TrEMBL record:
InterPro entries: Acyl_CoA_acyltransferase (IPR016181), GNAT_dom (IPR000182). This is GNAT family N-acetyltransferase. Pfam families: Acetyltransf_3. It comes from the Bacteria. Residues 12-177 form the N-acetyltransferase domain.
Amino acid sequence: MTAIPTLVGRGVRLEPLAAEHAPALAPLVDAALWAGMTTPLPDTTDGMERHVAGLAARPGVMAFAVVDELLEPGLVVGMTSFYDVDLRIGRVEIGHTFYGRRWWGTHVNPAAKLALLTHAFDGWGVERVALRADARNVRSLAAIERLGATREGVLRSHRLAPDGSRGDTVYFSVLRDEWPATRASLEARLA
């Protein structure tokens, strides 16, 4: 896999995730925000450093710190990533995403997703970008639908939480021929 690029979007910058981002990211998470995630709650700097290191060690993952450049320029407000990157067959997933609650409903998520989707479709030339969320995470499911992704289905008992409980995963995707309409919709939201 290639080096992780810095992606610049409309009011956000996605920079390669590093341990130096952990002190800013850890205070953004809490148990309720992290519910449905498959990794332990990283609500301390050490915990977030372990989380960041775990992502960096996974093959096919390109993780980013999301930096606000509009409301509070230069402030790290969350993270996101490409994962299950398989450019040979033209597919990638976007996930491992969270933002501090103060940035929910702002430009941050649509701008970050626009930057990621643009890189995937226009930079890499992929045919499919998938997104997924825990079936209980109503807020994330609604956010993915607002992006213009198509709901594909539910994988039952697909997720394993740190406490050993199991959850369902809802899958969405954007295909290459849907990308122009999705891009236009995101650009209109950010205008």
